[in-house]
Amino acid sequence: MKLGILVNEGPYQHQASDTAYQFTKAALAKGHEIFRVFFYNDGVNNGTRLSVPPQDDRNITQQWSQLAEEHKLDLVVCIAAAQRRGILDENEAKRHGKDSSNLAPGFRISGLGQLIEAGIQADRLVVFGD
Amino acid sequence: MSTPMPSEPWEEQEKDPAVKKFMYVNRRAPYGTIYALESLEVVLIAAAFEQDVSLVFLDDGVYQLKKGQDTKSIGMKNFSPTYRALEGYDVEKLYVEKESLWTRGLTEDDLVVPVQVVSREELRELMDQQEVILSF
User: Fold this and answer.
1) ipTM for the whole predicted complex goes beyond 0.90
2) Does A77 lie at the interface with B, CB-CB under 8 angstroms?
C-alpha cells in the first residue's frame, strides 16, 4: 500500500512524532511504500538539526534523518508553518536575512500543496497529532 | 479484458483518480491554539487542487464560525471573515455538528456563514464516505 504520513505535533512535548516514526518504520518493514512524510503545525519542529536531547534519550530528528537516508523518504516541512516557528533551510535563511539555518539533513521545505498531493496520490493518508 | 488506454495502477480503482473526497475536521476553538488558523490555511491551498472538499466543525470547533469575534484585546488577527470567502474558492460543503452547537448554547443563527447542521450520526455517515480526513 502507498501511504502518506502527516505529523502535526512537535518532538518531545508530544508523542505524535515518535508514533509516526515507529509506524513509518513498521510500514516500510512490511513492504509498504511511503509516498511522503509531511510535517505541519508544530510538527515542523521535528526538522531542526539544532535540538540537543539528553544522551540517554532518543534523538527524534536524527531518527527521521536516518530513516530518510535508508529508505529515500521524502520528508517535507510546510514552509508557512516553518517560517513562523523559525525552521529555515539555507535558501530561506538567506532570503529572510537570517544569520543561520537549522533544517536537518533529509528534510526539505515546501508548500502545503505537497500535503494535498500526498492525500491524492497515497492510498491512505495517516495523520499523527492530537 | 481490453484496456483502451495505458493506465496507472490506481486509475483502475476509480473513475476519476484526480478527484478525492477530502474532509477537514475542525475541533478546536479559534484562538488559544493555532490549529484553527492553520487548518484554514490548508483548506485555502487545497482549493487550488479542485478536490471534493467538505469542512466539519465540531466540539469547540463550532466557535470558529461564531459571529461577532473581537480579537483586538488579545493581539491576534480575527480570521473569521475568511470563512465567508470560502464560497469563492468553491468550498461550499460546511457541516456543523448539531450536538456541539446545542451543548454550547449556539444555533445556526450565531454563525458567520450558512452551514448544514447535521447530527452526530449523520456526520458518522459523511465521514464514512470520505477518502482523506484531516483533523485539526
Assistant:
1) yes
2) no
